[in-house]
Amino acid sequence: MKLGSILPPGMVSAGLKANSKKQVLQELAAMAARGSDLDERDIFDALLQRERLGSTGIGNGLAIPHGRFARLGRLFGVFARLDRPVDFEAVDGLPVDLIFVLLAPEGAGADHLQGMARVARLLRTPSVVAALRSSRDADALYSILTQGDTSRAA
Predict the structure, then answer these.
(1) Tens digit of pLDDT for each residue in 18-40?
(2) Where in the sequence is the domain holding 113, given as residue range(s)?
(3) Is the pTM above the cut of 0.70?
(4) Active-site position among 6, 26, 31, 66
């Protein structure tokens, strides 16, 4: 699965300013709503509801909030590098500064899991994480996130 098929070029933020997990989710929901046919409030509510089940902070300053939506036709992603890390109640207790939101159609079981696995694999690659943290430009972040798309599919 190519990340570029999930993450549209305009859905990357290189310095999102937020002071809390809730504010991060609000900002990312607004961003996702601009790039999809979904309502901002519906996205925010789904992400918040998922976080109530347990943090999507996977450790090392990374989080992958996600949700399912009846009106969504395909996997859709949004990525942000935060201006400064925020507490995300991550499994390792470290604050989060890199966040990939993954939205999926309700019936996208295998595709949703493949998308989550692709994102998690990429964000657990130390060289990728270092490059994402050192980039200050949304286009550069997008390029880093999608660089494996041309060489191989996941």
Answers:
(1) 999 999 999 999 999 999 989 99
(2) 3-148
(3) yes
(4) 66
